Amino acid sequence: MFMKICGLQKTTLLDFPGHVAATVFLGGCGLRCPFCHNSDLISMDAPALMEPEELLSFLKKRRSVLDGVCITGGEPTLFPEDLERLLDSIKSLGLLTKLDTNGFRPDVLRRLCAAGLIDYAAMDIKAGRSNYPSACGVPSLSIEPAEESARLLMEGSVDYEFRTTAVKGIHSLSDFVDIRSWIGGCRRYFLQNFQDSGRVAQPGFQPFLPSELKTFLDAVRETIPQAQIRGTDLDPRDF
Ligand code: SF4
Asked: How far is the CA of 25 from the centre of ligand 1 (A)?
């Protein structure tokens, strides 16, 4: 198996905080989150859109208007050597790199951070720890790798954020009570409300009401005072 580039968003102002970026979607993921909004990308059989050389040639042409590139999935760390080469080539173009990850390959994350290949990491905190196997759709899941990745980011020097997509039917207040004790004191934490992309792995999930999200945010803010809600069209003054 090898890394597949399955999608490309040519320009985004949202995916890489503070930067104009392109977002590259890599295929394949070891988890099966029932609320996955990119469910067409989680199979290793997801079709490739382009070869890395084509992507790099596109980025070379666009580097005057782009600050950076966000690598997302699927789960980008599944093919570490290919990913390392891709990040290295992107950085050689003078572009910043952001990696989205579920945190289940701390060995890869550690190596990429140590090699200076990522400028910003965004790691999913899928749920409170006891709810992780169910939220990730893998009943036998051990969350130790995710704990190790979270620790690595919190203790390391690469800029990062943690984020949780809150899904009615998956999460409850107890998840956020656990999350606040797990990653309390972290640099950045964002709570995102579930939105049905139309490509959700198991259709039928709902977003939370604004008042419910606010309860979760208040719980998390006990140890992460700067935690924020992101990606909602609700008035931010309410939060
Ligand atoms: S939401 Fe879950 S299943 Fe989907 S790509 Fe992310 S980690 Fe994988």
From this structure: 12
Q: What pLDDT, on the 0 to 100 scale, is given for residue 236?
A: 47
pLDDT at 62: 96
What is the distance between the alpha carbons of residues 21 and 199, in angstroms, rounded to a whole number?
A: 23
- What pTM was estimated for this model as a whole? 0.95
Closest by CA to 154, choosing from 115, 100, 113, is: 113
Task: Return the amino acid letter for 184.
Answer: G
Write the CB contacts of 220 (distance below 8 Å, at least 6 apart in sequence): 176, 179, 180, 189, 191, 227
160's tokens: 């990062």
Total number of residues shown for the chain: 239
SS3 80: helix
* Residue to probe by mutation, ligand 1, list 23, 29, 35, most atoms within 8 Å of CB: 29
Angstrom distance (rounded) from CA 208 to CA 30: 27
Per-block mean pLDDT, blocks of 10 residues, the chain (239 long): 92 94 96 92 90 96 97 96 97 98 98 98 98 97 98 98 97 98 98 89 92 97 97 55
| Pocket flag, ligand 1, residue 73 (CB < 6 Å) | yes
Q: From the CB of 55, is ligand 1 less than 6 Å away?
A: no
Domains and CATH numbers, the chain: 5-238 (3.20.20.70)
Strand order in the sheet with 228-230: 5-12, 21-26, 68-72, 96-101, 120-124, 159-166, 189-193, 228-230
pLDDT of res. 233: 53
With H, G, I as helix, E, B as strand and everything else as coil, classify residue 106: helix
Task: Return the biggest CA–CA distance within the chain.
Answer: 48
